[in-house]
Amino acid sequence: MSSPLRTEQLTKRFRSVEALHQVSLDVPEGAVFALVGPNGAGKTTLLKTLLNIEQPTSGHAEVLGVDTRAMKPDLLARIGYISENQRLPGWMKTGYFLSYCKRFYPAWRDDDLAELIRLYQLPLDRKLSELSRGMRLKAVLASALAHRPKLILLDEPFSGLDVLVREQLIESILERTPEATVLLASHDLPEIESFASHVAYLNEGRLEFAEEMGSLTERFREVEVTLEEPTTLPGDLPRNWLNAEQSAVVVRFTDCRFDGRQTQAEVQRRLRGVRDVTARSMSLRAIGVALARSAEASVGAR
What we know:
By secondary structure, the protein is α/β, with parallel strands linked by helices. The chain has two domains: about 5-215, Rossmann fold (3-Layer(aba) Sandwich); about 220-280. Helices cover about 35% and strands about 30% of the residues. It has ten helices and 14 strands. The chain has helices at about 45-50, 75, 95-100, 110-120, 135-145, 165-175, 190-195, 215-220, 260-270, 285-300; strands at about 5-15, 15-25, 30-35, 60-65, 65, 80-85, 150-155, 180-185, 200-205, 205-210, 220-225, 240-245, 250-255, 275-280. The longest helix is centred in the C-terminal third of the chain and has 18 residues, at about 285-300. This is ABC transporter ATP-binding protein. InterPro entries: AAA+_ATPase, ABC_transporter-like_ATP-bd, ABC_Transporter_VariousFunc, P-loop_NTPase. GO terms for molecular function: ATP binding; ATP hydrolysis activity. Keywords: ATP-binding, Nucleotide-binding, Transport.
């Protein structure tokens, strides 16, 4: 079975700026796939390219088995898209907006919409411009879920929302579209850790990794080494030791390819007078911070 979303060597340039660099990504069917990275990493550009809003400079992308450059309305009708910067017709009343959206989706289900209106407590007689940001997002989400899309693309949708609203929206997406594939772009790592099945990390347009969430959290560890006496860190530390620093007799680093025995042996080989080695699990947020710090240090060293 083909993947619902796949890219090969996808590159996008805006004049002299390379927003995406040879991104190859394969999103499995039914996954809740988190696309994370700092602001300006290329997440929005990737989503716009997948929707054919932006044309790739080179490379290839497929959505639901179709080349994105050949997308037609019948394919778009199987996709739900929600963005934090989505422009809405503020003069429309909420009820009219939902009725207007219906004509574009042959699979639209009025019973699903009625349930979403009740769940989100949408005020159908109020203009979109009069709604809070959270309520506008609920209206857009209702229009995206009422046709039971096969693929849902979310671009920083929950930024700035309070915790309860965010949790309600996440739960409704997962519960109402259990067979859909979800690609969520976000820089807010704590919001996705509890429900994402896969994660990919973009940095300066480059895909650093893409893997199952369990695999990622298993291979990252915060390592602390206690020495017998202060010493100078060697200059040829392993590349998987990120952000290595020393304070007196304590050396700390993030190991992005942690293996208990191998890490222990490598520490003993690289550092003199090792008294103790401890390794701690890391949250997705901590992993993101470590990667961002490492990327920043790499830029500074150029």
